[in-house]
Amino acid sequence: MIKAILFDLDQTLLNRQASIEHFIEAQYERYIDYLSHISKTKFKSKFMDIDNNGYVWKDKVYAQLIDDFNIQGLTKDELLEDYITTFSDYCVPFPYLFNMLHDLTAKNYKLGIITNGKYPFQLHNIKALKLDTYIDTILISEQENIKKPNPLIFERTAKKLNLALHECLFVGDNFESDYQAAKNAGMHAILKTNHQAVPNCNTPFINDLDELIPLLKNV
């Protein structure tokens, strides 16, 4: 019997794509005096390209942007500090997020988040969306000194909830580090596709968060 539903953060609960686009546009305007020789479109496009869906930390992103665009009078550390301190102001939730969390809570599921990323950066994003008001436990890879797909982070989460691994279900958007990793650890798993192709026809999946609760009946 499933007693806990656990989630990845980026591109699962947090629409990182929309969030990062809003942030970059605002950052460009904040530093327009240094960036006016670059179009906003080019700055945003280059950032997104180097960022690689968040897999490249922003010190490297900004260093390359400064080099590629010959940005003068502005350092990568200044841009990075702006990112760290203000990104949470631009966090965008996926549709149906809060209805889903409310309904899961009403059904007495324990809820958790397991996310790779920096601490406290990811915690600020979680709090910006007010997810902490619903969530029973939060594990952030940098704070835990372990990250997905290592099974230990899933085992640690189940232990914090006083549950067996088979009593937990994990929902995430990455096939290898979310779906497959959770299954390898001993949890149930559902892939959130965000309307992308499913890599395996036997993979249980949802496109949007409102599809999760009906699917739980089949797990």
The helix/strand class is: alpha/beta
Q: Hey, roughly how much beta strand do the residues contain?
A: 5-15%
Q: What is the third-level CATH name, the topology of the largest domain?
A: Rossmann fold
What's the SSE pattern? Answer: EHHHHHHEHEHHEHEEH
Q: How can the largest sheet be summarized?
A: 6 strands, parallel
Q: How many domain modules? A: 2
Number of helices: 11
Which CATH top level class of the largest domain fits? Alpha Beta
CATH architecture type of the largest domain: 3-Layer(aba) Sandwich
Q: CATH homologous superfamily of the largest domain - what is it?
A: HAD superfamily/HAD-like
In which order are the strands of the major sheet placed?
3-2-1-4-5-6
> Using DSSP, what is the number of strands?
6
Poorly predicted tracts of residues: none
Report the end-to-end length measured between terminal Cα atoms: 9 Å
What is the gyration radius calculated from CA atoms? 19 Å
What sort of overall outline do the alpha carbons produce when their principal axes are compared?
elongated
Helix percentage: 40-55%
Q: Overall mean pLDDT score?
A: 97
Structure overview:
The structure is a single chain. This protein is α/β, with parallel strands linked by helices and about 220 residues long. It folds into two domains: about 5-15 and about 95-215, Rossmann fold (3-Layer(aba) Sandwich), CATH 3.40.50.1000; about 15-90. The chain is about 45% helix and about 10% strand. It is built from eleven helices and six strands. It has helices at about 15-30, 30-35, 40-50, 60-70, 75-85, 95-105, 120-130, 140-145, 150-160, 175-185, 210-215; strands at about 5, 110-115, 135-140, 170, 190, 205. A six-stranded parallel sheet has the order 3-2-1-4-5-6, with helices on both faces. β4, α10 (about 175-185) and β5 form a beta-alpha-beta unit. The radius of gyration is 19 Å and the shape is elongated. The N and C termini lie close together (about 10 Å). About 30% of the residues are buried. The model has no long low-confidence stretch (mean pLDDT about 95).
